[in-house]
Amino acid sequence: MRVLLAAIAAILMALSIWQLEQDRSGLTIRPLEGTGTTPASLYLRDTDAKAPVVVIAHGFAGSRQLMEPFALTLAQAGYLVASFDFEGHGRNPVPMSGDVTSPDGTTRLLMAETARVARAALAHPRADGRLAYLGHSMASDIVIRQALSDPPGDAVVAVSMFSQAVTGAEPVNLLAVSGAWETRLVQESLRVLRLTDPEAQLGQTTGDPAQGTGRRAVAAPMVEHVGVLYSQTALAEARDWLDAAFGRSSDGPVPARGGWIALLLVATAALGWPMARSLPRARMACPQPGRRGFWLAALVPALVTPLLLAPFDLRFLPVLVADYLAVHLAVYGAITLVFCWRLGLLRGQFPARAFWVAGAVAVFGIAVFGGVLDRYVASFVPHAGRVPVVAGLALGAVPFLLGDAILSAGGRAPVWRVLVLRVAFLASLALAVALDFEGLFFLVIILPVIVLFFLLFGTMGGWVGRRTGLPAAAGIGLGLVLAWSLGVSFPMFNAI
């Protein structure tokens, strides 16, 4: 059974990778020169024809990889596509800076970076001098403002748009695309459309893109803020809108990457089960605390940690809220481990083999699963400046997940206990945000990431814990994976 499942997972992984790589067929993808410190990629079809440039910008905590469905679609349609990592994101070694609340602060700096990429792409021999911008979420405002600056845009595609810079006449040829489940952003797109025609409806075009007066708003069905990036409706609308603005007709494919990426991630995670089954079998059952001890160990850290840290201004890592999160995890984990010690749950948890099993868990999560993520989903490889961030987060993530794994008996505890532990920690972060909403607002963005981590890596950690009877091994390994995941994902920021 173990060998059969491993073979099936490997076959599905290979099939998914083959399909995803087919979307690159006929394209040349190489670094874009002339962008300074900004890492940028140039996508162009293997032809000698000149074409308009499309500059693609990702949203907050995103990267070039996340925007690749648009890059591949437009490159296959014959456009010269430049995609890049904003300061503080992905492989970009320069932290974000400035005032994030002011259009003249961080926004202006990101506009300058976008303009630098646009000029470098326009200097390419295949560029025909025309330019369009495409941006998602945070970058929708950046590209709209940049299209009104220098170099100006002949068309704009704003995905999951919010911007106060839109008027009834500017920017020219604006397409606003939102996921149908992004209710507020759909209404914002409709508001912007109705600046040109108060009676306009979603899916309707006002003005004439060929004359520079076009505007359109679309809701891609059955997707949300991230899913919209993989929606074939959103991809086709962007391509067709640029074709209308530039007087072109494209016949390139619209890649269906979302389903194949989902299959690849599921197959990669499923590969963890037969690998866990190959580990040494547990020699004895994991101890579990009594009901009263469990409730105290689960709830006291959740309540005490945010109250204890509320008076302190914790800023020592160059990543938004990562410093607070590292300390929150460390204190939470330390309190939990004290309870585990008092309940006698730490005895026998740290034999020598626990550490090599923990290393195997970390390698699988970071190198195997992370390698897939980096190639097809989002940046997962840190540059040198992120190494201290990962290390700092590990000092908190390892004790936190170590305590969590021991209380859940390495996945052998009843499901209700596991749910209590997960909900208690998320509630603890929510309480921290409530106590300092302005300073810790960005923790709200981290919450879905942690939920996904629990669902995916928590399941894999349970396979290891139940097989080996070593909750500590799963906890230490997953702590390193969590630290890496958060350390490479969230924007680096220099407040000075």
UniProtKB/TrEMBL annotation:
Keywords: Hydrolase, Membrane, Transmembrane, Transmembrane helix
Presence of the UniProt keyword Transmembrane in the record: yes
Domain of life, source organism: Bacteria
Membrane spanning stretches: 254-273, 294-312, 324-343, 355-373, 385-403, 415-434, 440-458, 470-493
Recorded GO MF terms: hydrolase activity
Serine aminopeptidase S33 domain span: 52-192
Protein name, entry field: Alpha/beta hydrolase family protein
Organism name: Roseibaca calidilacus
